[in-house]
């Protein structure tokens, strides 16, 4: 079933990214939908150990072999040593998780680092009202807001499906440079070479009671690697690498626009 024209609640055939060639059905905000919230709630159960134990055990084993820790996903693994090093140098640190949903990144870090270290973190999650309402119930010791607050943070985190959904992403990143000493971007699909481009995505949550059903349409900005690097040309690059090919997800696009992969990058502000 075509992701462009299928109805909300139906299961389109992947891949889900497309360039429209006619009317787009179900062009509504997916992040406030029942399907997306059901997906988030399923993620919560998985973090809490209530998911299928056989799948959980295999995932934990793979993560321990690859990353050295069973509970840290690949998109957060490079953040862990940065946080630990900073906590070794300072009594307290502050982290802003922009687009952090219901606080799942916070929950994972709390599991991996332990309550003693996490209690020394002032962790702020920025997202929409429905996601943070869920987060406040799950993680009452974490701060949830709809707008990035005033002030400065030690680390600004932008991970898991955030950067590509921001229309004026250049302005957004320039603003973040004024908010933190370290900016961490991960699990965002970037174009390996060439200019960025815009596409549509039929959002079909992977988990929950509405799994694989179309819950809305998102505008996606696939940023070019050189464009992103240019934003931080005056900062110190700490990490800059692609880690997972995403080209198959763009199979409906012309071949020259399939050179896309997940990316992780960390920049530190220069002293002075």
Q: What key attributes describe this structure?
A:
single chain, 272 residues, alpha/beta, Rossmann fold, 10-stranded mixed β-sheet, 8 helices, 10 strands, globular
Describe the structure in your own words.
With 272 residues, the chain is of the alpha/beta class. It has one domain: Rossmann fold (3-Layer(aba) Sandwich). 29% of the residues lie in helices and 26% in strands. It is built from eight helices and ten strands. It has helices at residues 34-47, 53-67, 79-89, 104-113, 115-118, 129-138, 169-177, 225-231, and strands at residues 17-18, 93-98, 121-126, 143-145, 153-159, 180-191, 197-203, 216-224, 236-245, 260-268. It is globular and about 55 Å long. It starts with 16 loop residues before the first strand and ends with a strand. The relative contact order is 0.18. Residues 50-68 have low confidence and may be disordered.
Estimate nothing, just give the exact number of structural domains.
1
Helical content stands at: 25-40%
- In CATH terms, what is the architecture? 3-Layer(aba) Sandwich
Shape: globular
Q: Give the termini separation.
A: 55 Å
List low-pLDDT spans: 50-68
| Rg over CA atoms | 19 Å
Q: Quick one: how many beta strands?
A: 10
Query: How many DSSP H or I helices?
Result: 8
Order of helices and strands: EHHHEHHEHEEHEEEHEE
CATH superfamily (homologous) name: Vaccinia Virus protein VP39
* Major β-sheet profile: 10 strands, mixed
User: Beta fraction of the residues?
Assistant: 25-35%
CATH class: Alpha Beta
């Amino acid at each position: 079933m075509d992701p462009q024209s299928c109805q909300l609640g139906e299961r389109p055939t992947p891949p889900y990214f497309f360039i429209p060639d006619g009317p787009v059905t179900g062009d509504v905000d997916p992040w406030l939908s029942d399907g997306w919230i059901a997906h988030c709630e399923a993620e919560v159960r998985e973090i809490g150990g209530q998911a299928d134990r056989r799948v959980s055990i295999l995932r934990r084993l793979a993560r321990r072999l690859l990353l050295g820790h069973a509970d840290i996903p690949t998109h957060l693994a490079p953040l862990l040593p940065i946080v630990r090093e900073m906590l070794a140098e300072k009594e307290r640190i502050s982290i802003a998780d922009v687009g952090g949903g219901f606080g799942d990144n916070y929950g994972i870090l709390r599991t991996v680092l332990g309550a003693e270290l996490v209690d020394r973190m002032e962790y702020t999650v920025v997202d929409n009202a429905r996601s943070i309402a869920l987060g406040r119930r799950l993680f009452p010791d974490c701060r949830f807001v709809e707008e990035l607050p005033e002030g400065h943070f030690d680390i600004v985190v932008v991970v898991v499906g955030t950067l590509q959904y921001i229309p004026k992403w250049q302005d957004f990143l320039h603003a973040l440079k004024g908010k933190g000493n370290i900016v961490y971007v991960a699990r965002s699909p970037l174009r390996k070479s060439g200019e960025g481009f815009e596409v549509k995505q039929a959002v079909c949550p992977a988990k929950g009671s509405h799994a694989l059903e179309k819950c809305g349409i998102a505008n996606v900005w696939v940023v070019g690697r050189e464009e992103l690097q240019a934003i931080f040309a005056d900062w110190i690059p700490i990490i800059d690498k692609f880690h997972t090919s995403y080209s198959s997800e763009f199979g409906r696009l012309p071949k020259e626009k399939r050179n896309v992969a997940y990316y992780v990058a960390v920049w530190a502000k220069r002293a002075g």
